[in-house]
Structure formats: structure tokens, C-alpha cells
Amino acid sequence: MLxxxxxxxxxxxxxxxxxxxxxxxxxxxxxxxxxxxxxxxVRRFETIDPTGTYAPNLVNRLARRGVxxxxxxxxxxxxxxxxxxxxxxxxxxxxxxxxxxxxxxxxIDRLEPTEPTLFEYLRQSFDIPSHQVLLVNGEDRPQEExxxxxxxxxxxxxxxxxxxxxxxFKLFKVAQQLAEGDLGEEAQAKILQQRDDLLAADHxxxxxxxxxxxxxxxxxxxxxxxDDGFKNPRGDRLLTALAIRAxxxxxxxxxxxxxxxxxxxxxxxxxxxxxxISVIDDGLAQLVATVxxxxxxxxxxxxxxxxxxxxxxxxxxxxxxxxxxxTRAAHETWALVFGAGVEKNRVLDRTIDQSxxxxxxxxxxxxxxxxxxNRALAEVFA
Length: 382
Ligand SMILES: [Zn+2]
What we know:
By secondary structure, this protein is an alpha/beta fold. Helix content is 36%, strand content 13%. It has a single domain, classed as 3-Layer(aba) Sandwich (Alkaline Phosphatase, subunit A). It binds zinc ion (ZN). Zinc ion binds next to loops.
């Protein structure tokens, strides 16, 4: 028999059509998870190798706090692309090729998951509101706005995560500006055009709206940073700022931070890549310090830090670090897991497949990613 709360939750969902709570989901009491995508594709040499690293915090301090997996790999399969969206969806679904191309309006691939993501598994298993399951994204990657939920008919939008990105902030901002009125004809036309451009970036039209808690988050962000975009930090520093602010106000139980800037090496010289690694290293240190200083998160949080993909080693090319040539190095990643309930100061010295990340996070949080191709890594648990 249903309790009254469950009955009401189910009834509300049926009427509103945007279920916030699955009818039978349990209270969540497990650890919080911060999944840090060491993204934009990085090689082991410049990250976890002590002789070449630009990430001293990662190598010298954080590795001791947990289990380092130096030999994680993206499986060599036909059609597997060693790239950012693909690797990110491998991490979120625990599968390969669990996505489809939804077409491109911007000369970029836009993939959407065809299998459930960690966000959906979690929210189907536990009574957690959408604003406590967060994806923090870079400002010029609207293609990653699709990752908040997949197309699996048993999961999907009712169990989505919320997204924090400048893209989402701008959507909030133009809606506010239009609601505030008093713009004058020319300014109003400009803002309407801006809104149309933003909406055109997602064929799913961002339905449903950002939740009230997320809108309150953007309200405060706008108060502090204004409308023009000149005051807020940029690039991966912006992601750190968004994530730290979210930890303090939204209290996420699962948050993925999609760092990306090492990828600017596509356009420039190697220093773009190595400097970006240092910026992520510093951002990660700030995230860890924030968690360590907050009783809500301290001793009850696990960090999972891992790249989306590796990069090639092509010394003969002008820019030696690409990742589209399907070389061995582009398939080579790593992972570091540390925090509550995780072994300390351990190197897990065997080859681990990238598809193990999702089932391991699922096991840490107490649910099963049952569509994953892999199993949880038992060696991670203390
Ligand atoms: Zn790239």
C-alpha cells in the first residue's frame, strides 16, 4: 500500500507531467560524489607522471588520499571515437557507443545518450531533487547540454540533472530582462534575438524550465556578476567558481564538473595545454579545500577524478597533441578516487576499463547502473 506522501507525489507527477520525485524512491543517506572530468583530453605524462606533470597538487597531495588507477583505458572498438562528448558519456553511462548523433547546427557533433546516465539512475533510486544532481559545463560547449538525461524510455527527463553553465545563465538572464520590461524597442529586439539564438542551441528546447532552486542560484549570480559577462571568471576557472558556489548553496549529492580547457591546444601551441592542466589542478585543490572546510561535505564525500580521453603522441605534427587519430595514447587515461570509504595511498596496478567508472560510482552511492557493461571496482573500497 502506498503511503500518503508517495500517493501525493505520484498524483502530482501525473497532473503536472514533470515528476520531481519518483513515487517509491528512498531517502538518500550515502556519500556525496564529485566527479571531476579532467577534460579536454590529457595525456598521462603531463598529468599523473611525476617527471612530466603540470598538476603537482594531484600527484603530490591528492593521490595519497585515495586510490590511483594509472592505467585506465578506452577500449579499442570499431567506431569508438576518443573525444570529449564520447568519453564523457562513457563515464556517465558505463558503456561505449551509448549515444546517437542528433545533428549539428554549429559544425559540432551533438550527441545525446541512448542509455541511462548516473544522474537518472540516482534520481530513480533516491528521492533527490534535480538541483542536487548537477552538471557544471563550459561556456562554449552547448553540445554538452544534452547530457543531463538520456533517451532510455524507462529513465529520461523526469530524472534529469540540472545544468550550471553560462549558457543556462544567459537563458535565465534574458527571461528576466524581458520580464523586467522598460527596455526600449531596439534593446528589446536585441534581447529577443539573443533568446532565440540560445534556444536554437538545444533541439530539446530546455524543457522543462530550470528549477526554482537553480533560478535562485542564477538570481544571486546575476546580482554579483551583472549582465555583461565581463566580471565573472572565464574558462575552466568559471567552472570552479560555479561548482564552489553550488556546493555552498545547492548542496549537490552528485555533481560532475566538466573541465575542458586543455583542448585549446587544437588551436594553438603546447603551452595552452600545459597551462590549462595547471588551472584544473588549482581548481581541483579549491574544490577539495571547500569540501574539507564544510561539515556537510567533509568526511562524507568522494572525489572521482578522470579524463574524458587521452591525446595522441605525434611528434611529427605541428601540434603534437591531437586526439582524433585513434592512437594508443588517445585511449590511455587514468583515474583517482579519494574520500569517504575509499582506500588511502593505494595504486591499483592493473588495466582498468573506462566503463568501470559509472558502476563504481553507483556502488559508492548505493544503486546499480544495471545497463553498464562493467562492474564496480571492489579494490577502491576501504
Ligand atoms: Zn578536442
